[in-house]
Design brief:
332 residues, alpha+beta, Phosphorylase Kinase, domain 1, Aminoglycoside 3'-phosphotransferase, Chain: A, domain 2, 2 domains, five-stranded mixed sheet, 11 helices, globular
C-alpha cells in the first residue's frame, strides 16, 4: 500500500516515551512524523531532528487467533536468532530489532532499511521492459537464501506435514469464499492427496526459512546488500518453501499485470539456477528442488488468491493456475 501520513506522535502517547528513551535517547525532545506503511498495524516513525527512522509493528492483545498472536509476538526473537547466524552485515542482512513492549501491544521496533524492494524491479521488468536489474536482484536474493538455508541446516528431516495442512486450509478458505467452486474441491484435494501418497515432500533437511518470501519483504540497498524484513513467519522447514514462494510470486507478478504467467518462466529458471549453483552438485540439487517446487508454487498462488484487492476473476484464474501446478508436478 502507498504510505499514509498520519501526523505527529504526541508526547503523551506511551510509544513516545519508549522511542525517546530506548531508541533516540541522544536526541533532545525528539519529534516523530508517523506514516502507515502496511495494511496491517505497521508504521514508520521518522525523527525530524536526526533524520533517522524506525518501523514499529503492533498486535492486538485481544486477538482471538492465538497462533497469529504468538507469531506476531515472536518476530523480535526470530530476528535476533537469524542475525546470530551472521546476517548482521553486508551483503546478506536481516533487519535489526531494537526493542519491544508487549504491555502496549508493541511487537517490535526495528531499523528502517532504505532501498528498493523486489517488487520495484518486477514492475520495471513488466512495465518498462527493463529486465537486467531484476535478473541481478534475483541473483543476489538466491545467494542470500542459499546462505540462510545452508548456515541453519539441521540433522532433522522435514515431512511436509505443516505445508500439507496449510494448503488444505487454503483450499477450504477459498471454497468458503466462492473463489474455488464447490465442484472443484474434490479435484484440488485429490491432487494434494497424490502428493502426500507419493511422499514427494519428505526427506529434505530442516533449515530456517523466511516463511513469507514475498517481493516486498526483501530490500536491496544502494551498496549492494539484500536485507530481509517481516520474519514473523520464520521457522524450521523445507528450503523449497521459500524458493517455491519466490517462484510463485514471480508468476503472479506477470500473470496479474500482463495476463501472461509464461512471461515469468525465464526469471524463475534464472532464480533456480542461481540458487542451486552454490551446491556441490548443482544439477542434482536443481533436480531435487524442482520436484518439490510445483507444490510450493501452488500453495503460494492459493495464498495470493485470498487477497480481496484482486479482481475476483483473476483470483479464480490464479486458483486454476495453482491446480495446474499441482497436477504438473505429479507428472515429473
Amino acid at each position: 500500500m502507498p504510505k499514509q501520513y498520519l501526523g505527529h506522535l504526541q508526547e503523551q502517547d506511551p510509544l513516545y516515551g519508549i522511542l525517546a528513551t530506548r531508541v533516540f535517547n541522544g536526541v533532545f525532545r525528539p519529534s516523530f512524523k508517523v506514516e502507515k506503511i502496511s495494511y496491517r498495524q505497521v508504521y514508520k516513525y521518522s525523527e525530524q531532528n536526526s533524520g533517522l527512522a524506525v518501523v514499529c509493528k503492533f498486535f492486538d492483545p485481544n486477538d482471538s487467533n492465538r497462533e497469529r498472536l504468538a507469531r506476531l509476538k515472536g518476530e523480535y526473537d526470530n530476528l535476533l536468532r537469524i542475525r546470530g547466524f551472521g546476517f548482521d552485515s553486508a551483503p546478506f542482512y536481516v533487519v535489526r530489532p531494537i526493542t519491544k513492549e508487549e504491555s502496549i501491544g508493541l511487537a517490535v521496533v526495528e531499523e528502517y532499511i532504505k532501498g528498493k524492494d523486489l517488487d520495484y524491479y518486477l514492475k520495471k521488468a513488466v512495465f518498462q521492459s527493463d529486465e537486467a536489474p531484476l535478473y541481478d536482484r534475483l541473483t543476489l536474493l538466491a545467494s542470500f537464501l542459499w546462505e540462510m538455508h545452508r548456515r541453519t541446516q539441521t540433522d532433522t528431516y522435514n515431512n511436509g506435514e505443516a505445508s500439507i495442512h496449510y494448503i488444505y486450509s487454503l483450499i477450504d478458505y477459498l471454497s468458503l469464499h466462492n473463489v474455488i467452486e464447490h465442484r472443484e474441491i474434490v479435484g484440488f484435494k485429490q491432487a494434494v492427496d497424490k502428493w502426500v501418497y507419493r511422499g514427494i515432500l519428505k526427506g529434505a533437511r530442516d533449515v530456517i526459512i523466511h516463511g513469507d518470501a514475498t517481493p516486498t519483504n526483501f530490500i536491496f540497498t544502494p551498496n549492494g546488500t539484500v536485507a530481509a524484513i517481516d520474519m514473523e513467519r520464520s521457522r524450521y522447514g523445507d528450503a523449497a518453501y521459500d524458493i517455491g514462494m519466490i517462484c510463485g510470486e514471480l508468476k503472479h507478478a506477470f500473470f496479474w499485470r500482463v495476463g501472461d504467467p509464461l512471461r515469468a518462466e525465464p526469471f524463475i529458471g534464472h532464480f533456480l539456477r542461481e540458487y542451486t549453483k552454490h551446491s556441490e552438485e548443482p544439477k542434482v540439487e536443481f533436480r531435487r528442488l524442482s520436484m518439490r517446487i510445483p507444490f510450493y508454487m501452488a500453495l503460494t498462488e492459493l495464498r495470493v488468491a485470498r487477497n480481496l484487492y484482486l479482481d475476483w476473476g483473476y483470483r479464480k484464474r490464479l486458483t486454476e493456475e495453482a491446480r495446474s501446478c499441482l497436477l504438473g508436478g505429479l507428472k515429473g
